[in-house]
Design goal:
The mean pLDDT is 76. By secondary structure, the protein is mostly helical. Helix 4 packs across helix 7. The protein has helices at 2-13, 18-32, 39-62, 73-92, 101-110, 115-127, 133-158, 162-171. The chain has two domains: 1-35, no CATH class; 71-172, no CATH class.
């Protein structure tokens, strides 16, 4: 904990993003404390159980629902969603030689849910004034759209509803 707070204090002193200090501390701990193999697991449970939910609550409370009425926001979020899913599906086609097309699609879809990463990067970029509020909201919405769409797509591919299986049986 002292290492974490030291890096956070350093980030405050250097006027950098605090999450960057936490990231550096996270890299520092397993590198220099290899004899404490249980430490990363203990910190992981603390992070996922306490810190990360607080971050998402903060992001959720900072999202203004009235922004949904801003011209072009939903379209931009949908475009980002489509591009992120499309790129991952295209990259997953490399594995088609190893498995089936279905497996490759599922692999691409399973890597298309960067909710935590996309929101964290968008938040960092917004607070560093690298993107404006419009694009910040577009990335937040895109991450939500992506998770919803991909989870539904995976569910339909793995366990197709009866009406879809009937359509494919009739065609064959």
């Amino acid at each position: 904990m002292a290492i974490l707070f030291s890096f956070i204090a350093l980030m405050l002193y250097l006027d950098l993003e605090l999450a960057f200090g936490a990231f550096i501390a996270g890299m520092f701990i397993p590198t220099f404390f290899q004899h404490k193999s249980q430490l990363p697991g203990k910190l992981e449970s603390y992070g996922f159980g306490f810190v990360i939910p607080i971050f998402f609550v903060h992001v959720g409370t900072s999202f203004n629902l009235a922004a949904l009425y801003v011209d072009g926001l939903i379209q931009t979020a949908m475009l980002v969603t489509a591009l992120m899913i499309g790129i991952r599906l295209l990259a997953a086609m490399v594995f088609k030689q190893v498995g089936t097309l279905k497996d490759s699609i599922l692999l691409g879809l399973s890597h298309s849910m960067p909710l935590t990463l996309l929101i964290a990067i968008a938040t960092l970029a917004y607070h560093q004034h690298s993107i404006d509020k419009f694009h910040y909201y577009a990335f937040i919405l895109a991450s939500l759209f992506e998770v919803i769409f991909v989870m539904l797509a995976i569910k339909v591919i793995v366990h197709p509803p009866n009406f879809i299986t009937k359509i494919f049986r009739e065609k064959s």
